[in-house]
User: Fold this.
Amino acid sequence: MVEKETSLHKIQRLTNHQENIRNVATSAHIHHGKTAFTDVLLAAAGLMSSKAAGDLEEGMTTWQHADEQERLMTVDAANVSMAHEFLGQEYLINLIDTPGHVDFGGNVTRAMRAIDGTFVLVCAVEGIMPQTETVLKQALRERVKPVLFINKVDRLIKELKLTPEQMQERFVKLIGEFNSLIMQIAEPEFKEKWKVNVQDGSVAFGSARENWALSIPFMKKGNVSFKDVIKLYEMNEEDRKKWVWKNAPLFEVVLDMAVKHLPNPLEAQKYRIPKIWKGDLDSKFGQDLLACSKTGEVAFVITKIVIDSRSGKEISAGRLYSGIIVNGSEIYSNLKKKKYRIQQVLVYNGIKPEQMESVPAGNVLAISGLNCDVGDTITINEQIPFEEIKHIFQPVITKSIEVLRSSDLPKLIEVLRKVAKEDPSIKVEINEETGENLMSGMGELHLEIIEGRIKSEKGLEVKMGSPIVVYRESLAKKSPEVEVRTPNGHNIFFLSMEPLEDEVYNAIERSDLPEMRLRKKAEEIWKKLSSYGISNEEARQYQEIYKGNVFQDRTRGIVLLPEVIESIIDGWRLVVDGGPLSKEPLMKTKFVLHDAKLHVDHMHRGPAQIYPAIRLGMYDAMRKGGAIILEPIQTHLIEVPVEFMGAVTTLIGSKRGVLIDVRQEGNDTFIKAKIPVAEMIGWSNDLRSATEGRGMSSLMDQEFQKMPLELQSDVIRKIRQRKGLSENQ
Assistant:
């Protein structure tokens, strides 16, 4: 008797067939059914109990932390793999289930680097929500192709009791809104190409919890209609489940959709690589990346790190874009600038990582033996790394964190470093001078979850301070040119500061302009700058783009400048990291070096001389240019019953909020408002109180705006006091 092939052996075999690989994700607004959707797919592949699939009380398979079960929501992205047969061929589906809550959107951003297509789930009742738009932006920014799954259609039947015609009308509206977003967000070459179409099957409908789905091609093939589905809910539960598995199983419909409409890595890398890697595409390495070459040099990008709580061993998951990763081989970290030896090469069998000897390009996999960070590019030899993985939103809430016992302080520092590695959306600042340790996150819930995990999973009792808002420093206008000497008086710099052009800053935020040190032949970047209204001469003066700020060198013919330019840039970076008003990071500024007079002896122009001169010069220039504080502002969409509209608008006004739009649909009112983050501490409770628990708020956008001058001095004073800054710091 021939022994049946195991799921692991099948997955191992399929890793070699690049044309039959689909690297995909689920993405959606919170509670639109992504994780139940993934559960059902795993159950169909025989990788979990079909009885427990999609059962909230049982817990989703991809929930790896107790807090996810407790809160009934996905917090961490989870990798799973499964095999699928379509038209007589076998396919490997590498899927990443991502969170829907906006506080954990960094997981979505990082997942998008590893995949080529995504199922965007939309609730049939709630429709397109703010986070739907956000995840679509995250996908399209990485040139990840979307398909649409309209979920929770059972609610239209059971709760709203819609007819097939009424359901069709609703679907047409949702598809239209979805395509409208693609037309708004996608790059020109993908706008029309990536619109979804109900007729070709790039749209499917169904219920993940109930394990059924339909698409037009599937309905034609199986002679099934929506009328059949409506009759389905006249059956008892057991008969309904049998009918679903036989006539409209979710896994078959959606995985067929993935195979037919989402690209394999050979196709996807041709257009994704120019977006996410800025090296020379004509080089051997560049050509290997474009071709997803198995024979090329290894190019692996880390998108997720998991640290085992008992062994401390790191598992680095990510995407292999070129080459073959082999167990025991030596590789190079382009961020750490050091070599490591791979201890294990792992693929996912369902959710379980399993060891393999080697895995070729085009796959999502994991390796152990590294001590690297998310976003690192792993190669054999030093190479230009992939673009930084940048989240749409920045951390805006900070809390101090301290241990209850002073003897635990060394452990706290180690734990915080691990936390920042596992979740790069968390920014950790360890100040060994003041003893203040700060943790910044995407929101109050984000920090609350991390605090809970430090206590329950890391075994460390900690105390968190009150929320602190993260501000930025900038300047109101262009400064005059200032002159500054090094402490020894032997070197003079002439410099100025000015606000960065909106077009350039927005391009940096969109990742159209990479944050990097610009070398001599940056033709592509110069071309982009010229499209934003920057002259060719000025574009060629750009030396570095760093954290939304620009360093520009306008000097001419200074012989000794190349010997000190790196120290000047390093000094500039130090001020960008902490400005003159309150040591908050700079944002949207341009530093201009006009001239320099340098001592001939290098002993008199070392970093110890240059750093303080650049710092004092920048401080003076910003003072003369009108240094200002920028505060984070969030745009929220608030949904409330019409009778609470007055209470909510009053609440918004009390928080320095500004109404942008108010519209009414039936008995519900939708209010769009901009509110300073400083006023939003405890927002969820305030909204609950104002609406008797019936209000719902979703983050739509985030930006930094100039703080009202009458509030600025008090905010600066409080920040400086908290940081323990003296007058001259």
Summary: The two ends are 80 Å apart (CA to CA). The longest strand covers residues 627-641. The chain has 23 helices and 32 strands.
